[in-house]
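Sync notes, pocket subgroup
Present: LS, DG
LS reminded everyone that the earlier model was apo-only. Rerun requested with dihydroflavine-adenine dinucleotide included. Inputs:
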Amino acid sequence: MLRSTLLYLARQGWLRHWIETSSVSRRLTSRFIAGRTLEEGIRAADQLSKDRILSTLDHLGENVTSLEEAARSCDSYLAALQSIERHGLGATVSVKLTQLGLDLSEEVCLRNVSALVERARAMNSRIEVDMESSAHTDRTLWLVSELHTRFGGHVRAVIQAYLHRSEEDIRRLSAAGIAVRLCKGAYREPPALAFQLKADVDRNYVKLMKLLLEGGAYPAIASHDEAVIREGLQYVRASGIDPNSFEFQMLYGIRRDLQKKLTSDGFRVRSYVPYGDAWYPYFMRRLAERPANLLFILKNMIRG
Ligand code: FDA
């Protein structure tokens, strides 16, 4: 119930405008958002690198309303890639295709994201293409496949374990040598398309994780779920899988203890570092995943 309410509020423009421009917003969000500017995002990535944690930078934003806005998003990511290279960070960037114009023109979106993958290829990095709601799944996977073919890699798709179609998608992507980030899925989807019970999503996640660890192209296991991660580690050890053939990914500010522990145990961990002004939908999805965060944030605000 609280989860649905938070996901509903995540889509409310009036609330978003009010809260994004409010003076308390920075205190509200600092646990999960690295800052408002690229410099703050880079600083967070630099700080993480001191703990040997890799980063993927996400310039917050989704669903642009004009091609000019999409072009500006593209420029902001080119600037992020340039800054990553300048600072010598082993970082990638994560983009949402709706931020690069997917809902306005597939052709322009492909042109925008191609410019990013080309730049990533030149610096031996990678563009990670986040997965949005199911209305975008087919188009996103098509674009990622196209980019992989054009640029010989340097791109990663995201698959959501809650979707019934995901096993088939993973088999197809792995056969084509396309890297996959596996997550549980953060949107509200109908029963015809997605598992509704957490236990079913978790079971499917474990199944797909093993599939990727066994035959995927440098997969990313993106979860904070300790039970799932434990199963992954057992599988890796039992099957003699090279720890350098995959990475764990977690969100900035979440389970920092686990991020450090996995790194010190010799596994690669990448933190998803969001920055920018348009933080509201991202922040609300994090609250919806764990409504206890609401209490945590309110307590910290009262403490000051
Ligand atoms: P689950 O939700 O079952 O949580 C397991 C445990 O993790 C909780 O008990 C708690 O301890 C901790 N935890 C989880 N979420 C937390 C939170 N918000 N705050 C505090 N603790 C929390 N989704 C998507 O649809 N498209 C995408 O492209 C991506 N990309 C992506 C990248 C990366 C690096 C990550 C880690 C996640 C995503 N996601 C995503 C989000 C993902 O789909 C999912 O909603 C969240 O990761 C939460 O799921 P968990 O696997 O962590 O498990």
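DG: DSSP finds 13 helices and eight strands in the chain.
LS: Strands lie at 54-59, 92-95, 127-129, 155-160, 179-183, 220-222, 247-251, 269-275.
Action: DG to write up.
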